[in-house]
Specification:
Structural class: alpha+beta
Order of helices and strands: EHHEEEEEEHEHEHEEEHEH
Radius of gyration: 19 Å
Strand order of the largest sheet: 1-2-3-4-5
Length: 257
């Protein structure tokens, strides 16, 4: 990526050949990733396909919340993940509003993977009321510009973090919570040690994998300004396929950290 954070270029579709996807086009999501077709049908208006070659790639268009035009594309297929050249990764997100909430949304579910969002939705669609919710995935790294654009367009929405259980996912939880609370946070890692400077207070986790959202809140005094939901296994997609492959097991309630 050569784009600078203060740039907002007009996306050039170049050699991309994007068309609306059908359920039949989404075999990678249904057969490989195990996402049921009824869930894919809910999100179908927010999924495209790229027909540049004899086969097609699934395309997740990204844009700023307040704009309709696409400013980039995330491309996926088996063993393939790419962000189209020229995509605005600093301001744009994959945004799905299947219940037509527009700026009246009450909740924003945010992840770093569209597949994780779809997998989460499928498992919790009968537990949570999603009728006033939008679903978001960042294209690359989580930037404050992403947060600010979401906050500005959805002023009444609370954030629900679906970032993974890895260290970067936990750090994204902290970034999001601190942005919501208008608190400063600087991060640095030295070998296995994680050093966090929160509002001029130094908090150290040694080793870094001891970090959790609740342990940081306890050490920092940060209020619980967001909801954090983590998968039971390594990912929501793994959880989904575990349940599909082990139908005799009861589905567990979500875990929070």
């Amino acid at each position: 990526m050569t784009q600078k954070s203060n740039e907002a270029p007009k996306f050039n579709f170049g050699s991309l050949n994007l068309e609306p996807a059908t359920i039949q086009d989404l075999g990678f999501l249904s057969r490989v990733k195990g996402i049921p077709e009824d869930t894919l049908d809910v999100f179908l208006p927010f999924i495209l396909k790229d027909l540049r070659v004899t086969y097609w790639n699934i395309a997740f268009p990204i844009r700023a919340p307040e704009k309709e035009e696409y400013t980039g594309v995330i491309l996926n297929n088996i063993n393939y993940h790419e962000i189209a050249e020229g995509s605005d990764v600093f301001r744009s997100l994959w945004i799905a509003d299947p219940f037509n909430c527009r700026f009246f949304a009450q909740k924003i579910y945010i992840s770093n993977s569209v597949i994780e969002v779809l997998s989460f939705f499928d498992q919790y669609k009968f537990k949570f009321d999603f009728k006033q919710s939008v679903f978001v995935s960042i294209p690359e790294k989580f930037h404050e510009l992403h947060f600010q654009s979401l906050k500005n367009y959805y002023p009444n929405a609370a954030f629900v973090s679906l970032f993974g259980k890895c260290l970067e996912g936990k750090l994204n939880d902290l970034r999001l919570a601190c942005w919501v609370a208008n608190k400063s946070l600087d991060m640095n890692t030295v070998e296995e040690e994680l050093i966090l400077n929160y509002n001029d207070k130094e908090i150290i986790f040694n080793p870094a994998n001891l970090l959790s959202f609740n342990s940081f809140r306890k050490a920092s005094g940060l209020k619980n300004v967001i909801k954090v939901i983590k998968p039971k296994s390594d990912s929501f997609n793994d959880d989904l396929n575990l349940h599909e492959n082990e139908p005799t097991k009861k589905k567990s309630h979500y875990s929070t950290y």
